[in-house]
Amino acid sequence: MMANWHSRSQQERKLILLGAVSVVLILLIVLVLMPFWQTHQKESRLQTRYEQELIWMTEAVDHIKELRKNGTLPGHFPAGQNIRKIVSQSAKKADITGLSSIADQGDNSAKLTGISMPFGLLMNWLEMLWTQYGITAVSVKLTPAKTSGRVDGALILKPLDVL
């Protein structure tokens, strides 16, 4: 192998060394730096999302503190009434349009799916259900929407009387 190397001219040796260095640099970029850059971009996107969620949660904290401070007693669920009907009517009164379906669960509870609305509007509506009818959320599955301050998800609501 050394004989083959020494049989080459000085110009050929420099060209081969330049090619080898180029291959090493390309491999370094492809195998080390590109994954690092991709990870950095992914982490930057996650940081942006987490910052948006933090802003959303900070805004929600004030509303939650206000609700706790008020300490309002729950309303009374009207005997013989259908919870789905009450929830549907109260949603209309509150101009809630971000519900795709309200279904009876059979145990005097209602399942709300396809929720997509501002978090503050949802909290105000749930507070109104609590104070007027004694209806509370027994299951809450919410995730932040792509738009800051909005949530998507599902709820199961039940009157306090039947808990």
Describe this structure in words.
The chain has 163 residues and is α+β, with helices and mostly antiparallel strands. Strands 1-2-4-3 form a 4-stranded antiparallel sheet, with helices on one face. The model has no long low-confidence stretch (mean pLDDT 85). The protein is built from 4 helices and 4 strands, in the order αααββαββ. The chain has helices spanning 2-7, 10-70, 83-93, 119-133; strands spanning 101-104, 110-118, 135-144, 150-159. Helix 2 packs parallel to helix 4. A hairpin with a 5-residue loop joins strand 1 (101-104) and strand 2.
Strand order within the widest beta sheet: 1-2-4-3
Oligomer: single chain
N-end to C-end Cα span = 85 Å
Integer average pLDDT: 85
From the structure above, extract its key features.
single chain; 163 residues; alpha+beta; 4 helices; 57% helix
Layout of helices and strands, plus pairs?
Blueprint: H1 2-7, H2 10-70, H3 83-93, E1 101-104, E2 110-118, H4 119-133, E3 135-144, E4 150-159
Antiparallel strand pairs: 1-2, 2-4, 3-4
Helix pairs in contact: 2-4
Short synopsis of the structure:
With 163 residues, this protein is an alpha+beta fold. It is built from four helices and four strands; from the N terminus they run H-H-H-E-E-H-E-E.
